[in-house]
């Protein structure tokens, strides 16, 4: 086969597997910013680049491979990143299937990179049908790998690369962290993405529930300076820390999204946008000067909110702030290394809402020190705060997190398949705590979701702030009850029977 282009970057995804029935209409379809920005960087370096967003286009691994084969690239790179920490591992099942299809149906070399492969590079190389694993951020490694492939395949000088040599695992020194973010993370190659396919989160558009498309998602920084035990966000970087794109490049990115693609709904993907006042306020001021009418959501911590800045960021179009509250119990938060300088969560929420900004509160059940009583304490706080949106999670041992290290060391039971790390999948398998089993944690989480969103207090608030169409939407959302293998009575009975048979067999043998 004659070589065609240099590289195809692939964004994997299986919405049915990860979100069950919620994936068809309710879940967001997020543009893969990290894929698009790496595509822009490689294109600026002179490489011929294409992108296949298998998730947005909802195509199978085999269909993905057919498209790759038609392009005849030197390299096909599956980038398993996602726009939140859990989104990488939960997509590894389908990412592995894509790698296998690429090996079977194309002549391209196959690489896999992203957050999960960076957390478990050796295992990923051994488990998946890939020629290479990219450890770290990716741009430097991909550039070096393409240069090596063009010149005949000497991989030893490619930073951050894992590969086999004579059936032996080899890996090179890690690539340096990106210093010049404006050069290595230029305005993304949005023209290579199916921009008509992307859809905002339902709650992000509660002020206009029928206007979830088009949609954009951007980074203004990389990394996080904190070290919460449940978070794996820093796995590609190797350590806590944060680096910033310039406000000018960020707002140029927004200009492209608005003027070329008609985007007004934007997610700022940064793990922590409201942190460095000089950075986020400069972006807010430039957006205000642009005159763009945007609907933005971004992440903050309870203790990084400066009340004096709320009116300005609201004027810039930041209509939603996602707050990592995690637990109502200070001891549980401290045990997860989620240490807050401010503990008056209620005051912070009310001050944010008083500026006209909506709050999406995030809670985690099943943290290491949780009991049924502390989880109930957290649910009671959520009900009392009654924020415009709430995410209820189970504690998961995501690869790259300290919880994962502990789980492996202690022999805790983990999901059988990678998509079992999805919060919403049928196969999900959260962690137990010292006091509660994983099954109890999951049942508490699922019940909490319905208690919160089906309560008359929440629905009354939603109608007052967003109107009857949103109440109808929420009722439709809660009419879907997630199916869980762990809670399935038939599955539970089968597991119990297998355990009894295994115990009986061991006795007679």
- The number of strands is 15
Query: Can you tell me the CATH topology of the largest domain?
Result: pyruvate-formate lyase- activating enzyme
What's the helix count? 21
| Largest sheet geometry | 7 strands, mixed
Describe this structure in words.
By secondary structure, the protein is of the alpha/beta class. It has 2 domains: 7-136 and 138-171, Cobalamin-binding domain (Rossmann fold, 3-Layer(aba) Sandwich); 195-478, Alpha-Beta Horseshoe (pyruvate-formate lyase- activating enzyme). It is built from 21 helices and 15 strands. The strands form 3 sheets. Strands 2-1-3-4-5-6-7 form a 7-stranded mixed β-sheet, sandwiched between helices. Helix 13 (310-315) links the parallel strand 12 and strand 13 (318-326). Helix 4 packs across helix 6 (92-105). Residues 493-509 have low confidence and may be disordered.
């Amino acid at each position: 086969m004659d070589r065609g282009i240099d590289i195809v970057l692939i964004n994997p995804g299986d919405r049915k597997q990860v979100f069950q029935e919620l994936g068809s209409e309710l879940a967001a379809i997020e543009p893969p910013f990290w894929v698009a920005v790496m595509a822009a960087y490689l294109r600026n370096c002179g490489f011929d680049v294409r992108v296949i967003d298998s998730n947005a286009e909802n195509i199978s691994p085999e269909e993905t491979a057919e498209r790759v084969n038609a392009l005849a690239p030197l390299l096909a790179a599956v980038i398993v990143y996602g726009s939140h920490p859990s989104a990488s591992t939960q997509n590894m099942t389908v990412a592995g299937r894509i790698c296998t299809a690429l090996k079977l149906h194309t002549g391209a070399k196959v690489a896999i990179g992203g957050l999960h492969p960076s957390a478990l590079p050796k295992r990923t190389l051994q488990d998946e049908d890939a020629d290479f694993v990219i450890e770290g951020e990716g741009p430097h490694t991909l550039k070096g790998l393409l240069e090596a492939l063009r010149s005949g395949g000497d991989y030893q000088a490619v930073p951050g690369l894992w590969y086999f040599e004579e059936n032996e695992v080899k890996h090179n020194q890690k690539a340096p962290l990106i210093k010049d973010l404006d050069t290595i993370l230029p305005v993304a190659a949005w023209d290579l993405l199916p921009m008509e396919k992307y859809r905002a989160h339902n709650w992000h558009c509660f002020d206009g529930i029928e206007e979830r498309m088009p949609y954009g998602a951007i980074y203004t920084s990389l990394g996080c300076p904190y070290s919460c035990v449940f978070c794996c966000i820093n796995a590609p970087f190797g350590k806590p820390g944060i680096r910033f794109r310039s406000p000018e490049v960020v707002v140029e990115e927004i200009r492209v999204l608005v003027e070329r693609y008609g985007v007004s709904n934007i997610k700022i993907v940064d793990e922590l946008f409201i942190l460095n006042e000089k950075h986020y306020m400069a972006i807010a001021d430039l957006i205000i000067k642009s005159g763009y009418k945007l609907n933005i959501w971004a992440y903050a911590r309870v203790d990084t909110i400066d009340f004096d800045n709320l009116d300005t960021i609201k004027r810039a179009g930041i209509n939603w702030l996602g707050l990592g509250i995690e637990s109502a119990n200070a001891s549980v938060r401290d045990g997860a290394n989620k240490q807050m300088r401010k503990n008056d969560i209620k005051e912070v929420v009310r001050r944010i809402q008083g500026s006209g900004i909506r709050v999406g509160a995030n809670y985690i059940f099943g943290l290491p020190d949780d009991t049924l009583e502390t989880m109930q304490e957290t649910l009671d706080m959520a009900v009392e705060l009654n924020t415009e949106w709430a995410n209820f999670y189970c504690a998961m041992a995501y690869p790259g997190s300290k919880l994962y290290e502990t789980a492996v060391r202690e022999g805790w039971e983990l999901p059988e398949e990678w998509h079992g790390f999805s919060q919403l999948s049928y196969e999900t398998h959260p962690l137990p705590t010292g006091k509660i089993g994983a099954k109890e944690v999951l049942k508490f989480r699922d019940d909490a979701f319905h208690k919160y969103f089906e309560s008359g207090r929440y629905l009354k608030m939603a109608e007052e702030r967003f109107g009857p169409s949103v109440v109808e939407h929420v009722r439709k959302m809660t009419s879907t009850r997630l199916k869980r293998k762990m809670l399935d009575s038939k599955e539970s009975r089968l597991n119990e029977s297998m355990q009894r048979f295994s115990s009986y067999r061991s006795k007679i043998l």
